[in-house]
Design a protein that fits this description.
The complex is a heterodimer of chains A (152) and B (342). With 152 residues, chain A is an all-beta fold. Helices cover 0% and strands 38% of the residues of chain A. Chain B has 3 domains: 12-113, no CATH class; 117-178, no CATH class; 180-314, no CATH class. The chains are: A mainly beta (152), B alpha+beta (342). Chain A: It is found in: Nucleus.
Chain lengths: 152, 342
């Protein structure tokens, strides 16, 4: 009957890079949460390490140079442009309860246990990578817009 | 700060290989705990549902110091993407910061404070150590305390408190809960040993002095130590060599176990209080008042007393509080089990 340790801090924190999101959504690791009705469909790719460019996030009212940091009006509007001419409207919301992002703890050398050669008999350990307090929510369906992102 | 706002938004991409992340909804006290500079470790205890018809439902609990939370998986109607900033040279020669979805969660884990009583759960699993007519009647379970705790869906501290509440003990690689008979006899042995050794039980004494003297009576030393720990004052740390009993708690204990040895049959009040007094150090005899065992007895007639049918009623107010809220926890547990089996 297993008791699995849940470490309050990650062994290896994801190294933060320059975060293009508004400051409010920043976390030490850079992880953020984006909630969406439905999901994204895009052609399958043979490159497992790569990524597919889907569109862009726009915060039309966000202007840290002009707005006071306490001004939260910008949170009320976020656009997500997807593919050719689709746009979703959403907002930034504070989570009623913060969400802990939990993952399996990686090996001590920082490598993720590779499928198949998973360390035998070693107990699984979990860790909380990050605590997220805000999310970007897109709860409405996408609407068509002209001259959108020329993705893919 | 160079955001991508100026040139029309933050590029958004999706990683081809998704990470396996889970989202855990954090109640305020867990957030507080995690925000502390050196947070205490947490753990998840889990047990798969067995296929046996009378099997207990599956459970998974998150254990934090002194408390435990039931884990409940809740499907979300929306997709929750976890995003990470990354440098991407996808459509550009110079890498630019983008936001990339690296994981997709369709469920979150909710935490619900468990109000199960460790003492009740331990009473369900521990075999009884009884003494009938001078003979020990006990079935070995070949399971140590640590293994027992593994199967109790509560935190280590709660298990430990429950263990102390039922005066459980380890003996020859098994663990037991003592019957009222066993407790009453061990207590009488402790009292006799204290008298013989000239030890005042409500001031500091060496635990070893008592256990050595009681050992002649062939009681398991684990049981004697458990009884001493159960009766010790809150300040006394009985894990060390010293011990000091809480006088009023001990008087109540001696009275309660004496009543319980009668197993619900009537006891003449006068006879009960006389025996109770005889089971205490001389200096404590005047403490014998029925009010000391308030709540655990009935008067079936004018002259007799008996323990309430509830049996193992605890005089400990904190445990009574948890016992009172127990049924709802049970119900929830059953519901959870049913949904899991579907």
């Amino acid at each position: 009957m297993p008791t699995i340790p849940l470490h309050p801090r990650p062994l290896v924190a994801p190294s933060p890079t320059e975060n293009p999101l508004p400051q409010l959504l920043h976390t030490p690791s850079g992880l953020a949460i984006l909630e969406l009705q439905g999901t994204f469909h895009f052609p399958p790719s043979s490159d497992p390490t790569g990524s597919t460019h889907l569109g862009k996030l726009v915060f039309p009212l966000y202007n840290p140079a002009l707005n006071d940091p306490s001004d939260t009006k910008w949170m009320k509007r976020v656009y997500l442009y997807v593919g050719k001419g689709q746009r979703m409207t959403g907002e930034c919301k504070k989570l009623s309860k913060p969400l802990g992002i939990v993952r399996k703890r990686k090996n001590v050398d920082g490598m993720e246990g590779v499928e198949g050669i998973e360390e035998e008999g070693k107990e699984e350990e979990l860790e909380i990578v990050e605590i997220v307090r805000w999310k970007i929510v897109f709860s409405s369906r996408p609407e068509p817009v002209g001259g959108g992102e020329e993705a893919e | 700060m160079a955001t991508q706002q100026d040139d029309g938004g933050v590029p958004f991409s999706m990683a081809h290989e998704m990470h396996q992340f889970r989202l855990l909804e954090l109640p305020p006290d867990i957030v507080e705990l995690l925000d502390a500079p050196n947070p205490s470790p947490l753990s998840i205890k889990s047990q798969a549902a067995s296929n046996a018809p009378d099997a207990k439902p599956a459970y998974a609990v998150l254990c934090a110091p002194g408390k435990a939370f039931q884990l409940r998986q809740v499907q979300t109607s929306n997709s929750l993407f976890i995003t990470q900033p990354t440098l991407d040279a996808h459509s550009n020669v110079i890498p630019i910061p983008v936001t990339r979805a690296v994981a997709l969660c369709t469920a979150t884990l909710e935490l619900h404070l468990s109000d199960a009583s460790a003492a009740t759960l331990l009473r369900d699993v521990l075999p009884l150590y009884d003494i009938v007519g001078g003979d020990v009647d006990a079935t070995q379970n070949r399971t140590g305390k640590a293994d027992i705790f593994e199967h109790v869906p509560l935190s280590e501290e709660q298990c430990e408190a429950g263990w102390n509440e039922v005066v459980a003990f380890e003996h020859e690689e098994s663990s037991y809960q003592p019957s009222a008979n066993a407790l009453s006899q061990v207590w009488r042995s402790i009292n006799a040993a204290a008298l013989a050794e000239g030890i005042k039980l409500d001031s500091q004494f060496l635990t070893g002095d008592i256990t050595r003297a009681v050992a002649e009576e062939c009681h398991p030393s684990g049981l004697v130590e458990s009884v001493l720990r159960h009766l010790s004052t809150k300040e006394a740390d009985c894990t060390g060599p010293w011990c000091c009993l809480d006088r009023s708690q001990t008087v109540a204990f001696a009275g309660r176990v004496l009543l319980e040895t009668k197993q619900g049959s009537d006891y003449l009040i006068a006879e009960f209080t006389d025996t109770w007094e005889d089971n205490l150090p001389d200096a404590w005899r005047k403490d014998v008042q029925l009010s000391a065992v308030e709540g655990v007895y009935d008067f079936p007639t004018m002259t007799t007393i008996r323990v309430k049918s509830k049996g193992y009623a605890s005089t400990d107010t904190s445990s009574e509080a948890t016992a009172a809220t127990k049924p709802s926890a049970r119900k929830w547990h059953e519901k959870f089990g049913k949904t899991r089996k579907k």
